[in-house]
Specification:
With 514 residues, the chain is an alpha/beta fold. The chain has 18 helices and 10 strands. The chain binds adenosine-5'-diphosphate, magnesium ion and zinc ion.
């Protein structure tokens, strides 16, 4: 308050002097320099307490964490060391000092740490790795010291005999030492190691350090030594059951319409993290609010999935010509997707969202961990089908397929690295870039031909359906399938489409004959 007031008055005086004709520039500089200095000193002295600590007693229980059954069980087992300390003591077991949670963002690592504090009735303090990294050497280390001291005093104050310190993004401060341009990170990491080593496991309150990272491979090996973070728990993206469980938790207190089928949503949201599912439910509720409805319907969830996947609808207004081209492109994807796996098109939409002008949403078959050569080829076919439909209809291509090509190339690279290409088994580490590149191009070229052959019979019919997609903006998978079937009957398109020379059909896809 006083600061702002002083600055205001100072400026006014300077301007006044300037008007009087005085040369105010030197004075101005002097003032500017002293203010800058003051600011720096201020920050520096405030720094040690600047680590934001989350609320001391989070009320999250393991029941509120969906999926992650394995991680939860492992974590609870580890926590029993804290919970049943007396038993541990009589057996002379060395209690755990650190637990590292690893996994992609938004999978519930922070939730797990909070639930751990509830489960063990501990004080909970949290900080993020990036908060320890300051411009000034020594500040990070000081913050670490401070955090541990606080954990102990806080626990004593509240009569708890344990405290959990949670460090998010530990890779920021715990990356391999000597990798950074200055020693700040090293000092901070060293301080953390010192604190953990100094933690006596018989003292009260007992401190347990939990940390989370997306990149365990980046961590300094000193952190992973026994007596430090010697327990690692993987917190992965949820599978379908997990997603369903998370959706059930997140919709518990929301008014759902009768048509809502959470199982179906769980199936459609392959690859979503818990945080994305939470955001999905929230978006669906916002849609209901905007439409002034009191219940959330299945369709609102569908729109919300689009939004979470593709981003908010943008204000971009493509021309009619562009819209038609986008529709043709998306129909290309949709045709091949249906030919490969009937029933998988959820809907075709042309509404600018995020970076895309349109998209086809596919219903993932089932969660998959392994792919066969044919499945990878099919995915490449679907990815290439957009631009090839444009080519078929317009006789030229556009820039709209950049993402599709990236996806197709990445699938082709996977094929080569997994020994599924014509060069057979490869040593990924010693695979020359040029060889990889040649093989990727070869695969893409082959699949381009195959995809073109799959689309060819639909050449005369795409334009007509594109009109209705443009008119309606979004067409359901069922409406699309009805059209596809009708075209197939009228044009006598055989599912087994004529394939180019050198290809044969296998499991509904065109496979190059050896
Ligand atoms: P992380 O720490 O792994 O990045 P968070 O624990 O911060 O993820 O999760 C962010 C939010 O996402 C949570 O507050 C919660 O709403 C939701 N969420 C994430 N994972 C789950 C889960 N397994 N069950 C229920 N909600 C989850
Ligand atoms: Mg988090
Ligand atoms: Zn595309």
């Amino acid at each position: 308050m006083i600061k702002e007031w002083l600055v205001g008055v100072g400026l006014a005086v300077l301007i006044f002097l300037g008007i009087l004709g005085l040369n105010v520039l030197p004075i101005f500089f002097l003032v500017a320099v002293s203010v800058a200095l003051w600011y720096v000193m201020d920050r520096r002295s405030a720094a040690p307490t600047a680590v934001r600590e989350a609320s001391v007693r989070p009320r999250v229980s393991f029941d509120e964490i969906g999926g992650q059954e394995h991680a939860k069980r492992e974590l609870m087992e580890a926590l029993d060391f804290l919970k049943y300390r007396d038993k541990i003591k009589t057996l002379g077991i060395r209690p755990l000092k650190g637990i590292l949670l690893t996994g992609p963002p938004g999978t519930g690592k922070t939730l797990m740490a909070k639930a751990a504090a509830t489960y063990t009735d501990s004080i909970f303090l949290s900080a993020s790795g990036s908060e320890f990294v300051e411009m000034y050497v020594g500040v990070g280390a000081q913050r670490v010291r401070d955090l541990f001291r606080r954990a102990r005093t806080q626990a004593k104050k509240e009569n708890k005999d344990s405290a959990i310190i949670f460090i998010d993004e530990i890779d920021v401060l715990g990356a391999r030492r000597g990798q950074h341009s200055h020693q700040e990170y090293d000092q901070t990491l060293n301080q953390l190691l010192t604190e953990m080593d100094g933690m006596s496991t018989t003292q009260s309150p007992l401190v347990l350090v939990m940390a989370a990272t997306n990149r365990p491979d980046m961590l300094d090996s000193a952190l992973l030594r026994p007596g430090r973070f010697d327990r690692q728990i993987k917190v992965d993206l949820p599978d379908k059951e997990g997603r369903l469980h998370i959706l059930q938790i997140q919709t518990k207190d929301k008014p759902l319409a009768d048509d809502v089928n959470l199982e179906h949503i769980a199936k459609e949201t392959y690859g979503f993290s818990g945080a994305q599912l939470e955001s999905l439910v929230n978006e669906a509720a916002i849609i209901a609010l905007r439409q002034e409805k009191t219940q959330i319907t299945q369709e609102m969830f569908r729109d919300a999935v689009d939004k979470v996947l593709m981003g908010e609808k943008t204000g971009r207004k493509p021309t009619d010509e562009e819209l038609h081209r986008v529709a043709v492109h998306e129909i290309g994807h949709a045709i091949v997707s249906e030919l490969m796996r009937p029933g998988t098109v959820s809907h075709i939409t042309i509404a600018p969202r995020g970076n895309a002008l349109g998209f086809v949403r596919q219903i993932p078959e089932n969660d998959r961990y392994l792919y066969t050569l044919e499945q990878l080829q099919q995915q490449i076919n679907v990815a290439l089908a957009g631009c090839l439909a444009e080519e078929l209809h317009y006789g030229n291509r556009s820039t709209g397929a950049q993402n599709d090509f990236m996806q197709a190339s990445s699938l082709a690279r996977t094929m080569v690295k997994c020994g599924l290409s014509r060069i057979g088994i490869v040593d990924e580490e010693n695979l020359p870039d040029t060889v990889l590149d040649t093989e990727v191009r070869y695969i893409l070229g082959q699949q381009e031909q195959a995809t073109r052959a799959l689309l060819q019979p639909f050449k005369q019919h795409i334009a007509e359906f594109a009109q209705s997609v443009v008119a309606e903006e979004s067409v359901s998978g069922d409406a699309f399938r009805a059209w596809l079937q009708q075209v197939q009957q009228s044009a006598r398109v055989d599912w087994a489409v004529p394939l180019p020379a050198g290809f044969h059909e296998a499991n509904g896809t065109a496979v190059p004959s050896a």
